[in-house]
Design brief:
With 123 residues, this protein is an alpha+beta fold. Helix 1 packs antiparallel against helix 2.
Length: 123
Amino acid sequence: MTQQTTQTPRAVLAVEGARTARRHLTRRDVIARQLDAIAPGTARVRTVPVTIDRDGERRRVTWVTLDDALGQPVAADRAAHRAARGLLRRMLPDADWSRPLAYDAITGELADDEPEMPEELRA
């Protein structure tokens, strides 16, 4: 007797897709609310790992910028920058935080934030 695999019914896939979308929207909304509580107006968080030399000892730290929807810096102190980074690390634990990343609180997307060469300079 051979076993046959059956396809998952399309309705089941649709329900699972809807649940995933709801979780994504809920997480996006929670992060956006908490970022706004940390630094009002924050729509984008950029993180860049850098190495610094302090008292002859090299340390790896993360540079964090908080921007509004127009790309302008949000007025925030050091604690707010640290809190925003901590929030994202807790809410998005699977991300590779050893690379430059940008989180968009409007769309809920976390993307690589590597600098790119302008198209007109590529030859």
